[in-house]
Amino acid sequence: MTDPRSRCPINLTLEVLGDKWSLLVIRDMIFAGRRHFRELLTQSDEGIASNILADRLKTLVDQGLITKSDDPTHKQKAIYSLSEKGIALVPVLAKMADWGSKHLPVTEDFRMRGRLLAEAGEAGWKSLMSELRETHLGTPSKRRRKSFFDQFQSASYATRSRAVRQSADVLINGRPQNLRPAAVSAHEQPKDPSLPAKRKG
Fold it and tell me: What is the CA radius of gyration of the chain?
């Protein structure tokens, strides 16, 4: 390991997590529950390359942010787990999501996720961290009827599904769903000239 440029905590953090991909891998493990190489590779919103993913996973293991072990459910697969150091990044990612949602041109589904994290506050982040400790470290936690992770996933799925439906509606009808014209009543519809006119009286 090379000597750091300085002992400033911000600089030291950037030397570990300051590339384009490391925090995104941690993000997907925390908020999407992805723990296998193929999941992290094929389900990445940003389209990470396999060689870059392999390198970042190795670096994160070496830095003690995640661990790698054999998957007990599949002998030929490895499973990655967050360490306590990795779980401690939840508030950092929540703050980054909130800042990006306010100041950068994010899409509506990502904006909604950022708002959900911001509105959860420290209590919500601590709840998520407790759930992550149970999943990744085997530490028992108090279970709610619906976990923070499940709530976040449900809200994210609903928001993304709504965005997909609206996009499809624009492609099909040429207008957003909420701008559809009001229904035309029967007497306002144009007459078909091929039909005989109704007799009066």
Answer: 25
Structure tokens at 128: 């998520």
CATH 1.10.10.10: does it fit domain 1-83? Answer: yes
**pLDDT tens, position by position, 2-34:** 788 999 999 999 999 999 999 999 999 999 999
> What's the CA gap between 67 and 58, in Å, rounded?
9
What are the beta bridge partners of residue 79? 69
Q: Give pLDDT tens digits for 118-156.
A: 888 999 999 999 999 999 999 886 665 567 767 666 766
* 3 state SS of 3: coil
Tokens 């090379």: give the residue: 2
d(CA 80, CA 9): 26
Domains of the chain: which residue ranges? 1-83, 89-177
